[in-house]
Amino acid sequence: MRKDFKYLSDDDVYVDTSCQSLRPDVVIAVMQEYYHKYNSCGERVKYRWGEIVDGKVDQTRGKVLDLLKLSSRKYFVSFTLNTTYGLNLILNQIKPGEYDAVITSEIEHNSVFLGSQVFAEKHGIARVVLSRHADGSIDMADIEQAVGEYKRPLFIFNSVSNIDGRRLGNLPEIVKYAHKVGGRIIVDAAQAMAHYYKDLRGVEADAICFSAHKMYSASLGAVVMKKDFLEELQISFLGGGMVDDVRADGYDMSYLSPNHIHTVFEPGVQAYAETMALNAAIDWLKRQDTSELSAKSQKLFDWLSARDGVVLINQKPSTVISFYVEKLDSHLLAKALSDQGIMARSGYFCCHYYLDHVKKYPALIRLSLGYHNTDEDIDKILKTLSKV
Ligand SMILES: Cc1ncc(COP(=O)(O)O)c(C=O)c1O
Known about the structure:
Blueprint: E1 13-14, H1 25-37, H2 48-68, E2 75-80, H3 83-91, E3 101-105, H4 110-123, E4 126-130, H5 140-147, E5 153-158, H6 171-180, E6 184-188, E7 207-211, E8 221-226, E9 243-247, E10 250-253, H7 272-286, H8 290-305, E11 310-312, E12 320-325, H9 330-339, E13 342-343, E14 345-347, H10 352-358, E15 364-368, H11 375-387
Parallel strand pairs: 1-13, 3-4, 3-5, 5-6, 6-7
Antiparallel strand pairs: 2-8, 7-8, 9-10, 11-12, 12-15, 14-15
Helix pairs in contact: 1-7, 2-7, 3-4
The structure holds pyridoxal-5'-phosphate.
The site of pyridoxal-5'-phosphate has 13 residues, from helix 3.
């Protein structure tokens, strides 16, 4: 795979794909093309470059829906800064009185964990935090119990964990149940889109938020939302590119016309080069074969499982593997790995509640693999860990 990442030196072993994946050369080239050939604003200009931008940005919206096998009749795509922004844009604009409970899980990233806390506080509603099985699923009985007497629960779950790659295998069932009880569900797909996007295909959640920078594309976020969910929002984060008219005492919002619905979460000038890059990244991603990546994850998992003194968090191999070594500070270990050119994360990976307060783990090390990683990278990691 190094052929798609020609700029990468063989000495650099980057294993922090969960935070930000490396970009293949083809993705970088798309951004350069924008800067060299049609560097202009979208959405608001009528000149040639701007029309090229609008066309390409629209293609990307279509590409996202196509990847997720969702229909443009029901869904729209808006681009934003990252998953965190997407989630906050939704949660902060939901009208009062829409929901009587928010239900989430203990292994959520802070963007969901904190977002749901503040949402519950602001609306004066209950918040329920469910546990997840070792395989990532949630018991339907637990969900039913959590819903109890609530009339309109809002569910927010990640479909893949950034701690150990656990997957929410029963997501389709949960989505159906959420709708059956009259609620809605938001999916944090930050960790799903690179290697597990097939898990989400055709799953009709009410909103899906993800980060393009975790799926081999440029820094960008996306919100994929059911059009009818917008009825529950009071749009209050406003700016340029969102209105058709502004009067002394009022305004007409562009998102109310079907061709401009995406403007609802796109105030101001947008990241056009990055948006176009996502189109190329999706094409590239669809060409990748996950089997080699799985073999590398398996090798790391098997090796770590067999080591005395290593506490492996993963129950199963995944592209995201976390562990700690007894009596060894993970930050020091990360530094030792870094001295050998291995760039791995240490700490709690923005999952403080679960890792620190539920499990009471010390700081962890996380190795998150990407398509750029070679067999030599894995051997170097194992050799260095052995030495340490
Ligand atoms: C599961 C999960 N959700 C949300 C986020 C937040 O993503 P971002 O920082 O791109 O907003 C992350 C980031 O690591 C994540 O792993």
